[in-house]
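in:
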């Protein structure tokens, strides 16, 4: 799933390759997928996109926007895999959208569980999209400790730390995936009630959140996700589906795997209070 480290990485990678390319062909889904969301009729995407030149690509939160001339934007949300192919490669058999450029290179969009592929002119009336676009990224300096404390002030005190940080998109692009290592580094249990977190622990959590997300981004995303070229990210996850069978890197104890609030959580019950 795309979270801030991946949307930022793929945004940079895609812009360096795609800026200046012009769209020559829009190939509809070869393999319709029940949980792929579109805005309006995807058969009409071609009429918006054909002939457009790509100006830039921006990642924000759990979205990646391919910005074209004439104010046309093609945006994907987390769950959509966006991959680049040079001209000599064959089109993949299954995709939910494929775009060919004038130089015959192409990008393919595939969805595994669920995801959104949207095309629109200038404005997209979607809460999550606009919330993501208009929020301050946790990678930015403006996302400082005062900003972080304010997020705590706006919610009920009996909420768990996972519910606060990784649901309702209070911090767009911080989802259940990146959350695991942030809480491990901060020594906090995902179910910990925020009313029991001291000011000192909250300060430490803020620091861990910034450092962990920055490290994930600097290394080109997490090793559980793929980048624009189909390569796994260079950040080695501490707690994820790849690692939970290993002992806790801190104390050597067992890692617990559990379903909680619509996602799998991993934690060490000795190290995370
Ligand atoms: Zn441990």
């Amino acid at each position: 799933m795309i979270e801030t480290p991946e949307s930022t990485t793929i945004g940079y990678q895609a812009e360096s390759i795609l800026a200046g390319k012009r769209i020559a062909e829009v190939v509809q889904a070869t393999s319709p997928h029940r949980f792929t969301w579109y805005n309006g009729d995807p058969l009409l995407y071609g009429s918006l996109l054909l002939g457009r030149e790509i100006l830039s690509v921006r990642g924000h939160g759990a979205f990646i926007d391919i910005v074209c001339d004439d104010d046309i934007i093609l945006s994907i949300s987390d769950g959509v895999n966006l991959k680049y192919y040079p001209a000599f490669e064959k089109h993949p058999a299954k995709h939910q959208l494929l775009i060919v450029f004038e130089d015959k290179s192409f990008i393919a969009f595939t969805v595994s569980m669920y995801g959104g592929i949207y095309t629109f002119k200038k404005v997209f009336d979607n809460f999550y999209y606009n919330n993501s676009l208009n929020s301050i990224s946790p990678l930015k300096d403006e996302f400082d400790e005062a900003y972080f404390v304010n997020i705590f002030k706006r919610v009920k005190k009996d909420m768990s730390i996972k519910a606060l940080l990784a649901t309702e998109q209070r911090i767009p692009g911080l989802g259940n995936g990146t959350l695991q290592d942030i809480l491990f580094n901060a020594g906090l249990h995902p179910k910990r009630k925020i009313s029991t977190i001291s000011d000192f622990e909250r300060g430490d959590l803020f620091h861990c959140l910034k450092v962990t997300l920055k490290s994930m981004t600097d290394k080109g995303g997490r090793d559980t996700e793929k980048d624009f070229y189909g390569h796994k990210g260079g950040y080695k996850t501490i707690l994820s589906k790849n690692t939970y069978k290993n002992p806790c890197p801190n104390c050597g104890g067992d890692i617990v795997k559990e379903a909680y609030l619509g996602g799998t959580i991993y934690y060490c019950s000795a190290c995370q209070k």
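note: The first strand starts at residue 23 and ends at 28.
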